[in-house]
Amino acid sequence: MSSQKILLAARSCFARDGYEGASLQKIAEEVGIKKPSIYAHYKGKEDLFLHVMTLVFSTVKRRIIDYFIQNHQAPLESRMKNFFDWMLQEYEMSDNARFLIRSGYYPPAGLYGQVMDILIPFLDGLRRALTRLLQREMLTGGVHCKDPKEASIAFLTVVEGAVVELVCGWPDRYQSRAAAVWPVYWKGINA
Amino acid sequence: MSSQKILLAARSCFARDGYEGASLQKIAEEVGIKKPSIYAHYKGKEDLFLHVMTLVFSTVKRRIIDYFIQNHQAPLESRMKNFFDWMLQEYEMSDNARFLIRSGYYPPAGLYGQVMDILIPFLDGLRRALTRLLQREMLTGGVHCKDPKEASIAFLTVVEGAVVELVCGWPDRYQSRAAAVWPVYWKGINA
DNA sequence: ATTCACCTTCCTAACGGTCGTTAGGTGAAA
DNA sequence: TTTCACCTAACGACCGTTAGGAAGGTGAAT
What was the pLDDT predicted at A154? Predict the structure, then answer.
């Protein structure tokens, strides 16, 4: 199916060059077809971008949930600590994370509303899932914090604060930030 | 002087639309001149961008240092805590912070090296200044942390983690992140 | 004091190129 | 025979950039 190949090539280009920087020409080349052939599968650049976006968001959500489920036997502390390494891998290995962050931070001007309508529920869902996880772990003694909701917001904040170094293309600076901020965070939420 | 007006208009456009998204047409309109007149003052779009960049970086560095000097009589805790509010103001009031963050996260493809040659010393200088501040405060009991360098990296991380919400245009979410992450950070660095 | 050359600043016009997009046709599959 | 994926050709719009010239000011030479 070639509309799938277009979708993946577009994801790669949008992730690398951004919406304005990416061109249908380049996407078509990567697939091995001519530019106007894209219009047999998508209504235009905006339509293609929105299809990529829904694919990416559902994929990333699934992968994050899978990470926490797959390691459910490990103690919460190491699960959260290792999340930084997992995120690094995720960002460097696939276009999903790069696309999501770039389009989330700086969406194409004309699609601001439509991007945010997907991004906000995504982030809020992530935050709620993390809050529930912390609440569950409080019962079994995996963590001792007085406000799991605030702790989950803080966790997303420190993770994203480290991720911005990945955005600039410095995995070593990312790891240095992760190493510095993790002990502070863990000590900070455990009263 | 009209090359100054071009510089400021360019800063505003680059901050709002990014390098690829901004056009000399729009910049010229904002100044009130025709597009080719820009070439009487700058060699081209890249040259103009680099001039804006050096202006912005020196301005922002100066303003951050001024913030910490002006409030030097206040306890460190409130100086760092209030930095979040100061940053919010700074981001919303002027184009400087918006330009810096956008160009730092996603610099124009052809200028990656030149942007990073300015950005990296800027961030490292900031980190070193913060480390020295923490070291000084440790002597007077303003803070009790065992590793001021790690604490300063962690502070920049949590600040940037909150700032990414400003990038998306949500000051309320920024404040919620700041409110959640600050107590965690402060408790976390004070052993 | 006048002339002249020169420089800056802005203009109009136009360049070549790339962008997203559309029209219209071809060939194979259903 | 209709439908679908793909093509070539070309559209209009916009991009950054250049050429060439019209004003105005400056400073030195006549």
Answer: 98
Tell me the average pLDDT of chain A.
95
In chain A, domain spans: 50-189
Whole-number Cα distances in Å, A158 to A155, A165, B11, B48: 5, 12, 29, 35
pLDDT at B122 over 80: yes
Residues of A in contact with B186 (CB under 8 A): 188
CB A134 within 8 A of CB A143: yes
What class does CATH assign to A50-189?
mainly alpha
- Considering CB atoms only, which of A21, A153, A154 is closest to B20? A21
Question: Which chain A residue shows the shortest CA-CA distance from B17?
Answer: A109
d(CA B71, CA B86): 12
- pLDDT, residue A104, reads 95
Give ∠ CA A8-A10-A15 in degrees, rounded to 5.
100
Task: Return mean pLDDT, chain B.
Answer: 95
Chain B environment of A119 (Cβ under 8 Å): 168
**Domain B52-189 indexed as CATH 3.20.190.10:** no
